[in-house]
Design a protein that fits this description.
632 residues, 21 helices, single chain, Signal recognition particle alu RNA binding heterodimer, srp9/1, 5-stranded parallel sheet
C-alpha cells in the first residue's frame, strides 16, 4: 500500500508539471478558425502538427486542432496578413513515459515481493518467528507454570528437575565428570501431562525456551522442513544455554524407509537434518532438546539413541496417590463443600489421566453452577464422574415399553452374570437410561489399580459380555433377539483374538504370537499374522470361536439357573431405571429393594469402593442399532 501511494503521487506530480507547460486558451473548431482568419480577426498563430495556437487582435488566446493535409492554410494566412510560425513537435515527458511503460513490470515485481514475504513468514523464516514469540511468552508472569503445578508423576518430574538444576548450577555436576544430558524424550499416553511438564521446565529453567510442534517442520515445499530445523538450531545456538521443546515429535521422527519408492521424501529429509543438528559432526553445546510423543514405537532408532535423547522419561497414568494429588491441584480453583473427599474420588477413578481428572473437576463445577449452587458438593463430583464414564443422559429419548423391557433384561443379564463371576470387577452402576450412544449400560469397577490382566478375569469378561444376548434369548426367544449385543460381541471377539494370537492363552496353539501390528504405507497400521499357514489359521479361528462360545455357555448356565433373579433384577430396573452396585447386591440377597420416595428416577449415588472409567473397567449395554461404545 505504501509503494502504491508513492507511485500515484509521482504520477500526479508529473501530470501537473506536464499540464503547466501547455498554453492556456479557448478551444475553437478548425472551420471557425478559418472564418476568423478570413475576417481579419487573427493577429498571429503558431502551426504545430497536433495543435494550432494563436492570438486574436482583441488579445484573446485560442487553440484548435488542425485538419491533416490542409495545404491552403499557409496561403490563407499570407493573404490575410497573419503572422505565423512553425511550432516544433512537443517532446514527451520522459519521466512520465518511463513510469507508464514500466508500470506492468513494477506491478509484477510488487506481487512477487509480496508473495516472497509471505513464503518467508511461513517457510524458512519460521524458526526465527517462533523463537521471538516464545521469548515474549517467557517474560509474561501471568499463567506461569512451575513444578508445583505438576502432581501425580513424581518420578518423571524428578528426572526433569535434574535437567533444570544442571542449567542453574552446572559446576555441581561437571566437577564429578558429569555432562549435561543432550535430550529428554517424554513418553506417555495422551493427557498424562507431557506438555505440562515442558511448560513447567520453561517456567523453572530461567533460560531461553523455544517450542515448536513436529508438524510445523513438514511442508509441501521440498527443503522447507530441513531449512526450518537449521534456522531453529541457529537461533538456539545464539541463545545457548537454552531448551528446545518439540511437541508430537512422531510427526517428523517416524522410522525411515516406510514410504513409497526410494523413501527420499520431505519428511525423511527433515528427519535427517534433525539427526545431524542434534548430534552430528558439529557439537551443539548448551542446547537441550526436550520432545514429547505418545507413539514411541514408530520413532526412528537413530533418533532414540544416547547422544540425541539420553533419557526417555515415561509419564504414566497416575496411581491412586497421584490422582489424589492431581485432584488437589485442580480443586484449588473450585469452592468445595465440606463433604468432598478427594481420596474417595481418586479411589473411584482408576485409569483416569491428568487431563481426565481436570475435566472431571470442571464438569462438577459446571453442574454445580447449573444447579445454582455456591459450592461444589460430592454429589456433583459423582454425577460428573458418571457423565464422563458413561456419557450424558438422554432422558428426552422416546422409547417404547417393549424397548425398555428388552433393555432392562439385557442389562440385568450382564449384571447377574457379573455378580456370579468371582473374577469379575464389582458393579458400580446399572442403568436403562440412554447414555451416549447406548440404550442402557452396566458399569463395572476394579477395586484397585490393575497393572496386569489375568486369564480367569478374561473368561469372566467373556461370560459377562455374552450375558445380555443370553438374557434376551431366554426371555423373548431366539427369534426376538435384538442388535443391541453387537458391541458386546465385538468386545468378546477382540478379547478372544488377543488371548489366542498375542497372549499365548490357547492350549492347542501354545505360548506363541501369531499376530503383529505393523506400520504400513503412508503411516497406516495393519495387523498381519505371522507363522500362520492355512491349517494354523483355521485352528486360530476355531480357538477364538471356542473361547467366545465358552463365555456364552457360562452365561447361559448362570441365567438359566437363576431366571427368577433375572426377572427380579429386570423389574427393579424398570421401576428405578438406575441401580448402584450395593443396591443390586441387596436386591439379590433380600429379594426386595427399599428406596423411599424415589421411584422412576435415577439412583442417588453413594461413593463406593473403587469406581472407575471404561479404560480400567468394562461397560456392557444395549445400543441403538448396535453402536454401543465398549471400554476395556
Amino acid at each position: 500500500m505504501i509503494w502504491g501511494g508513492i507511485f500515484l503521487a509521482l504520477l500526479l506530480v508529473v501530470s501537473l508539471f506536464n499540464n503547466a507547460g501547455q498554453t492556456a486558451g479557448t478551444t475553437v473548431q478548425y472551420s471557425e478558425f478559418r472564418n476568423q482568419v478570413e475576417q481579419g480577426q487573427v493577429a498571429e498563430v503558431a502551426l504545430g502538427e497536433d495543435v494550432i495556437t494563436g492570438t486574436l487582435k482583441n488579445g484573446n488566446a485560442f487553440q484548435t486542432v488542425p485538419v491533416p493535409n490542409d495545404p491552403d492554410i499557409t496561403r490563407l494566412l499570407e493573404e490575410n496578413e497573419v503572422k505565423f510560425t512553425g511550432k516544433p513537435r512537443e517532446q514527451p515527458n520522459m519521466l512520465l513515459y518511463i513510469l507508464l511503460n514500466s508500470l506492468p513490470f513494477l506491478l509484477i515485481l510488487g506481487i512477487a515481493f509480496f508473495a516472497l514475504r509471505q513464503v518467508q513468514k511461513g517457510g524458512g523464516g519460521g524458526a526465527m518467528g517462533f523463537g521471538k514469540s516464545k521469548a515474549k511468552m517467557l517474560t509474561e508472569r501471568s499463567g506461569k507454570v512451575t513444578f508445583q503445578d505438576v502432581a501425580g508423576i513424581d518420578e518423571a518430574r524428578e528426572e526433569l528437575e535434574e535437567v533444570v538444576e544442571f542449567l542453574k548450577d552446572p559446576q555441581r555436576f561437571s566437577k564429578l565428570g558429569g555432562q549435561i544430558p543432550k535430550g529428554a524424550l517424554l513418553v506417555g499416553s495422551p493427557g498424562t501431562g507431557k506438555t505440562l511438564l515442558a511448560r513447567a521446565i520453561a517456567g523453572e529453567a530461567g533460560v531461553p525456551f523455544f517450542t515448536i510442534s513436529g508438524s510445523d517442520f513438514v511442508e509441501m515445499f521440498v527443503g522447507v522442513g530441513a531449512s526450518r530445523v537449521r534456522d531453529m538450531f541457529e537461533q538456539a545456538k545464539k541463545n545457548a544455554p537454552c531448551i528446545v521443546f518439540i511437541d508430537e515429535i512422531d510427526a517428523v521422527g517416524r522410522s525411515r524407509g516406510g514410504g513409497l519408492g526410494n523413501s527420499n521424501d520431505e519428511r525423511e529429509q527433515t528427519l535427517n537434518q534433525l539427526l545431524v543438528e542434534m548430534d552430528g559432526f558439529e557439537a551443539n553445546e548448551g542446547i537441550i532438546i526436550v520432545a514429547a510423543t505418545n507413539r514411541p514405537d514408530v520413532l526412528d532408532p537413530a533418533l532414540l539413541r544416547p547422544g540425541r535423547f539420553d533419557r526417555q522419561v515415561v509419564v504414566p497414568i497416575p496411581d491412586i496417590d497421584g490422582r489424589e494429588k492431581i485432584l488437589g491441584v485442580h480443586m484449588k480453583k473450585v469452592p468445595l463443600a465440606p463433604d468432598v473427599n478427594s481420596r474417595t474420588i481418586a479411589r473411584g477413578t482408576p485409569g483416569f489421566s491428568g487431563a481426565d481428572l481436570a475435566n472431571l473437576v470442571n464438569e462438577a463445577a459446571l453442574l454445580a453452577a447449573r444447579r445454582n449452587k455456591r459450592l461444589v458438593a460430592m454429589q456433583e463430583f459423582e454425577d460428573a464422574k458418571d457423565k464422563v464414564m458413561m456419557g450424558a443422559e438422554r432422558r428426552s429419548m422416546v422409547m417404547t415399553d417393549d424397548e425398555k423391557k428388552m433393555t432392562a433384561y439385557h442389562e440385568a443379564g450382564h449384571a447377574l452374570v457379573s455378580v456370579n463371576e468371582p473374577a469379575s470387577d464389582p458393579i458400580h452402576k446399572a442403568t436403562i437410561i440412554p447414555r451416549g450412544r447406548a440404550l442402557g449400560m452396566v458399569m463395572r469397577l476394579p477395586e484397585r489399580d490393575n497393572y496386569s490382566y489375568h486369564r480367569d478375569k478374561m473368561h469372566a469378561n467373556l461370560a459377562v459380555a455374552m450375558g445380555g444376548r443370553v438374557a434376551e434369548e431366554i426371555i423373548f426367544g431366539h427369534d426376538k433377539v435384538s442388535s443391541g449385543a453387537s458391541g458386546d460381541i465385538q468386545y468378546a471377539t477382540d478379547l478372544a483374538r488377543n488371548m489366542v494370537t498375542k497372549w499365548g492363552m490357547s492350549e492347542k496353539l501354545g505360548p506363541l504370537q501369531y499376530e503383529d501390528q505393523q506400520e504400513g504405507y503412508l503411516g497406516m497400521g495393519q495387523t498381519s499374522r505371522t507363522m500362520a499357514g492355512a491349517e494354523t489359521n483355521k485352528l486360530i479361528d476355531a480357538e477364538i470361536r471356542d473361547l467366545v462360545e465358552g463365555g456364552l455357555k457360562r452365561a447361559t448356565d448362570v441365567l438359566t439357573e437363576q431366571e427368577d433373579k433375572l426377572h427380579l433384577l429386570a423389574q427393579a430396573m424398570l421401576e428405578y431405571e438406575t441401580l448402584t452396585g450395593d443396591e443390586i447386591t441387596r436386591l439379590l440377597e433380600d429379594g426386595k429393594l427399599d428406596r423411599p420416595d424415589e421411584p422412576k428416577g435415577p439412583a442417588k449415588v453413594v461413593p463406593t469402593h473403587g469406581s472407575a472409567i471404561p479404560k480400567a473397567g468394562k461397560r456392557f449395554g444395549g445400543s441403538n442399532g448396535g453402536e454401543a461404545p465398549q471400554g476395556a
